[in-house]
Design goal:
heterodimer, A: 404 residues, 3 domains, six-stranded mixed barrel, two-stranded antiparallel ribbon, elongated, B: Rossmann fold, four-stranded antiparallel β-sheet, binds adenosine-5'-diphosphate, binds magnesium ion
């Protein structure tokens, strides 16, 4: 027996390839949507892994530092270092902002996450890991290590708030949970960038302090200066990243810090939960919604095309029935055509998605598992869509071939 | 019936059981007292009222009648496409209908015992000429190569073997009809039903088609019924059945066939 479906596809291959391409682009979009979601999850995982931390110590009662704002004193880490099970602890600040080269205008802005780290301390938590070029930050001011995705190169001068920084090293795939590339700068500079007020605000604050009778008592010399000095320091960080000793239980180490230091502590599992389940939850639902609509649209298109193709063959189907073709054979022909169309669509979609994924500004992760699931869904949709056409074909009366 | 035609169209006498058995053992088509009623009650239409027909193996007969007289209904009953209401039908050596179907797989009956040739060729547009013809033996379970050999033999007999690899759309009307005849014949059915097979053809080609049907009938001992209005071919039949208001009348035709 020959394949009736195959022959029909070969005969009308132009029609099939054309509609298969259209369907394929739709499937490509669907795979890309799934890839965008996977990319978001992967960005979050990469952020957690690259931080090198086991525990995130944050302001009490917050989900910081990525999902909510958090600030704690920058000397908290000393006390934490002394806790049982803690191997290492490091201050860190995170601030997402627009960054550009010193000699460029605002249109050349790059959205980046500026990370404040202790200089000359590679290997500690929060430090950039592997450098693809250059060296780590060694000075306490005005040096930066940038992710390659920022587009900055070694030797570039970049401006962050009021200061300019030399790019001395480059990393790869160091991104925020939102997919923005990271720029590492010395902690002191980062604290200033995040917490220091502008000059006018500082002047105004000094004036207000000076007018305050409580703080500017005539009989107490030096008080006003002391108050102003304390107001103009910025002893805050967003989090302390903690590495625990090998074999230690993260929850067991976290609990005393919570209780005795009165700080919030998140384990890696808890942090993943925050990033994946909470931070990108709305985006994930958005994408899921899109996927559902795309599936429905694809199903409608396949159903419509297969139905139209089948209706165009009613006469032939009546003849096939008249000369003794079994319903099973006719149903199989239509089913195979629908699945064939789905196969063409899937191949086109997979290729299209693979080609355009790198062009997306954010990371698009095309997982083989998603492709497999997508394939199964495409086949299921094609089978369901062909049912309408099969029903119509089986209703055809072989007497139609003879006519009145 | 008017007296003018009374002598010409003699009412077919009921065949005695003895004669019937003799004829049946030889194959062919035998119909006795066939009735077909469409619908029920007030709207019922008696399309076939009393049909008697007998076509021997190797014989080609014409079935002629005005529009609405029941020709297509008769072919559909014979072709096991619709169920008659009463009567008896024998195809080849099998009694297929006797007040009810005597055969369970009508589809297989159509595939193996009956060849159809329609007014339009209705070839399958996505199969080439060979496979259009070979499809039937393939459907019956023959291996592809054997089915194609069988098809080629017929295409040769019908003089279209040189177009074996062509698609139907590339053929002329006459070639298409010959391929359709090859398809009707390929399973060597004991019976061929042709509904206006020459309607789309000019008289030369129409006669050629009838000549082919006669040849095939003799070569394969096939009983062939040709429904037609075609004045060009009516004179070729040795025997003609007229049908009027669902009743058949037999007439000796003027044709000598093609012997
Ligand atoms: N499916 C049907 N339902 C009801 N009446 C029908 C149907 N098919 C045919 N008829 C009627 O049966 C009669 C014979 O029709 P038909 O066999 O098509 O005649 P012919 O082929 O000789 O023109 C006509 O009166 C026609 O209206
Ligand atoms: Mg008719």
């Amino acid at each position: 027996m020959i394949s009736l479906a195959g022959r029909d596809i070969l005969h009308a291959w132009g029609k099939f390839i054309f509609t298969g391409m259209g369907l394929g682009l739709l499937i490509g979009v669907t795979l890309s949507m799934a890839g965008i979601y996977r990319g978001m999850v992967d960005d979050a995982e990469v952020l957690l892994d690259n931080s090198g931390a086991d525990l995130w110590v944050v302001q009490q009662g917050t989900l910081g530092p990525y999902a909510e704002s958090s600030s704690l004193y920058d000397d908290s880490y000393r006390g934490i270092l002394g806790m049982a099970g803690v191997a290492d602890a490091a201050n860190i600040t995170y601030l997402t902002m627009q960054v550009r080269r010193s000699n460029e205008t605002a249109s050349a802005d790059v959205r980046a996450m500026v990370v404040g780290i202790t200089p000359d301390a590679p290997g500690h938590p929060g430090q950039p890991g592997f450098l693809v070029a250059g060296r780590h930050i060694t000075r306490s001011h005005y040096e930066a290590v940038a992710d390659i995705a920022t587009g900055f190169a070694l030797g570039d001068r970049i401006r962050i708030r009021r200061n300019e920084y030399d790019v001395v090293g480059l990393t790869r795939r160091m991104v925020s949970s939102g997919g923005d590339p990271m720029i590492f700068i010395p902690l002191k500079d980062a604290q200033e960038a995040q917490f220091l007020k502008d000059n006018d605000a500082i002047l105004r604050q000094r004036a207000r302090t000076a007018q305050n009778r409580e703080l500017n008592r005539p009989g107490v010399p030096g008080l006003l200066d002391a108050v102003i000095t304390s107001q103009s320091t910025n002893p805050y960080v967003n989090a302390v990243l903690v590495q625990i000793e090998p074999g230690a239980n993260p929850d067991a180490v976290a609990e005393p810090i919570r209780r005795w230091k009165r700080l919030g502590v998140h384990t890696k599992a808890g942090m993943r939960e925050i990033l994946v389940a909470k931070l990108i939850a709305t985006s994930a639902r958005q994408i899921a919604m899109f996927l559902v609509i795309l599936a429905v649209v694809s199903a409608a298109i396949v159903a419509f095309i297969i139905y139209t193709l089948t209706m165009g063959k009613i006469r032939e189907i009546a003849v096939l029935k008249l000369i003794g073709t079994r319903n099973r054979t006719i149903a199989a022909m239509i089913l195979q055509q629908a699945v064939g169309l789905g196969l063409i669509g899937f191949v086109v979609g997979k290729i299209a998605a693979t080609f355009w994924a790198p062009v997306f500004p954010k990371y698009v992760l095309l997982e083989p598992g998603d492709a497999m699931r997508g394939f199964v869904i495409v086949v299921v949709i094609c089978v369901l869509a062909s049912l309408v056409a099969i029903r119509a074909a089986l209703k055809v009366d072989p007497a139609e071939a003879i006519g009145g | 019936m008017d007296s003018d035609s009374g002598d010409k169209w003699s009412r077919k006498a009921p065949i005695t059981d003895q004669r019937m058995d003799l004829k049946q053992s030889l194959g062919g088509i035998h119909i006795e007292g066939l009735k077909k009623r469409y619908g029920q009650g007030d709207t019922a239409v008696d399309a076939l009222k009393d049909v008697h027909m007998s076509v021997g193996p190797g014989e080609v007969v014409g079935l002629v009648g005005p529009s609405g007289s029941g020709k297509s209904t008769l072919l559909k009953c014979l072709g096991a496409i619709i169920e008659p209401s009463a009567g008896r039908m024998t195809l080849g050596r099998d009694l297929i209908y006797d007040g009810g179907w005597r055969i369970s797989d009508l589809r297989a009956l159509r595939r193996d015992k009956i060849g159809f040739v329609f007014q339009a060729p209705y070839l399958i547009p996505f199969l080439d000429v060979t496979d259009n013809v070979a499809l039937l033996p393939m459907l019956a379970g023959k291996p592809n190569s054997a089915a194609r050999e069988q098809a080629m033999a017929l295409l040769q007999a019908l003089d279209v073997a040189h177009r074996a690899k062509a698609m139907p759309s590339q053929l002329s009307g006459g070639e298409q009809q010959r391929v359709a005849i090859a398809r009707g014949l390929v399973n060597r059915p004991p019976v061929i039903l042709a509904d206006e097979p020459t309607a789309p053809l000019d008289s030369e080609r129409a006669l050629a088609v009838i000549r082919i049907l006669n040849q095939m009938a003799r070569q394969f001992d096939t009983a062939i019924i040709v429904v037609t209005h075609d004045e060009k071919i009516i004179p070729t039949f040795k025997r003609i059945y007229h049908i009027r208001d669902g009743v058949t009348y037999e007439e000796a035709g003027e044709g000598r066939g093609f012997d």
